[in-house]
Amino acid sequence: MLPRLAGRLIGLGALLAAGTAGAVTAPMLVVDVDSGKVIYSQGATDPWYPASITKLMTTYVALDMVRQGRASMDQLLTISEAAAAEPPSKMGFKPGTQLTLDNALKIIMVKSANDVAWAIGENLGGSIDGFAAQMNETAQRLGMRDSRWTNPNGLPDPRQWTSARDMAVLGRALLRDFPENRDLFSISAIQFGRAVMPNHNGLLGRYAGVDGMKTGFICSGGFNVVASANRNGRRILTVVMGQASARERDLKAADLFDYGFGQSGFGWGGQTLNDLPTSSIAAPPDMRPYICDKRRPMPTDADSSAVTAGAAAGGNADNANAQLMAAGAPPSSALAFATMNSAALRNRALPPRAPLQPVLVWTGRDPAESAIAANDDAAPAKPAAPRVKVAKPQKPAPSRSIAATGATVPQPRLLARQKPATPAAAAAFASTGPATAVIAEPKGHKAAVKPAAKPAAKDAKPAAKPAQKAEAKPASKTASKPAVKSARNKDN
């Protein structure tokens, strides 16, 4: 039997009080999906708090009801006051909001929204207790002998627990019984309105071949994941529970995948999920003192992005095994997992995440009808009103004549074309010159003004007759009308 010391919790040792004379380690399991053969097992039947991987059970019950004709993917679910009151992670929908079962399942698989999972339970089961009864009945039928369910979202309840083995049984059943719905577990992100929410699963888009399934976190259970990966037509399911952070959970799962894909069928020992012995532990250990230390910020299941933050690129389990083999060490699974706690590999990082491909979700039946609701009800991001570029208020262009106000009209280009009313006015205009006109030029216009000397010299001869004509026209026709035209051009 593989030493239980191998693969212990990073930083915690793995000795956790469990209410018995013994001690437990963080559960881990690697299984071949098609055959059900166990590739690696550690504490696989020990009871554990599931957190949001509960939503895999919720999804199975919902899809099974659709298959039986008791529900449909396009039926509307209503958010109740109780659902809306569930704590985060949540969408924040208002009571009375409706959405299809199809959209609800996408949301709980990606966003892990507790309010939406609660609504699924209430609407499909008639009540939370009624839905929990269906969860327990389905679990027994599937052979999940270590599980007890009380709610559909996985929020803390001391009566609700499962095991790594049972979650592997459930994962296999989902992939086997609903192949047409496998895309539910591999959505990289959802988009609701303008908000794009990435999947909490930090392995998606980072580890080659990973195509699902679900993560979970509560203080009492630590960071859990049920993940599937496919390489060259061979599918492996990995379950990791009780890790101290999302980063450590993701790295541990990646190492388990590396080990699983590196093994041949002859090294599995012939043990199946049904052959795993029953645990001697009576109740799940409480991880809260280790995971949610009051002296540190509260960890979240959404911090998988920290996988690439501040960590140097490093090797993987395959590289570590290669080094061990070069040194003459046997490539046993115990050594493979022991390397995960070595100082040389502690700062490893998974590759950067592949670009997200968001899937649209909405409230109501039709995405067009939910456009307004998406902006009003979405909690992940406060929607803003559409940006409209509003021009700054401008002072109205002067339309009064120079003679009436004594001010310079801020239209030098037009002013230069006017004929002075009298010889005296011409002389005054010539004395100011183009400099005065340039100062009054509004921002954005070029100061194209003809020299003042020419108009003064050219118009020195006219006397009374031009004066009457100039006083009648320039003040209204020349100074007023072009100013309005200029303001319109700027607004456009």
CATH-derived topology of the largest domain: Beta-lactamase
**CATH top-level class of the largest domain:** Alpha Beta
Uncertain ranges: 1-22, 303-340, 377-421, 428-492
Span of the ends, CA to CA:
79 Å
Estimate nothing, just give the exact number of structural domains.
2
Instruction: Give me the secondary-structure category.
Output: alpha+beta
Summarize model confidence as the mean pLDDT.
Answer: 74
What overall form do the CA principal axes indicate?
globular
Cα radius of gyration in angstroms? 37 Å
What is the N-to-C order of secondary-structure elements (H for helix, E for strand)?
EEHEHEHHHHEEEEEHHHHEHHHHHHHH
Q: What is the number of helical segments per DSSP (H or I, 4+ residues)?
A: 18
Question: Portion of residues in helices?
Answer: 25-40%
Q: Largest beta sheet: what is the strand line-up? A: 2-1-9-8-7
Protein name: D-alanyl-D-alanine carboxypeptidase
Signal peptide: 1-23
Organism: Methylobacterium terrae
Keywords: Carboxypeptidase, Cell shape, Cell wall biogenesis/degradation, Hydrolase, Peptidoglycan synthesis, Protease, Signal
Secondary structure layout plus pairing:
Elements: E1 28-32, E2 38-42, H1 54-67, E3 76-78, H2 81-84, E4 98-100, H3 101-110, H4 114-125, H5 128-142, H6 164-177, E5 189-192, E6 195-198, E7 210-218, E8 222-231, E9 234-243, H7 246-261, H8 288-291, H9 317-326, H10 333-338, E10 358-360, H11 371-377, H12 402-405, H13 412-415, H14 423-439, H15 453-458, H16 464-472, H17 474-478, H18 481-491
Parallel strand pairs: 5-10
Antiparallel strand pairs: 1-2, 1-9, 3-4, 5-6, 7-8, 8-9
Helix pairs in contact: 1-3, 1-4, 1-5, 3-4, 4-5
Biased composition (Basic and acidic residues): 456-474
Binding site for substrate: 214
Active site: 52 (acyl-ester intermediate), 55 (proton acceptor), 112
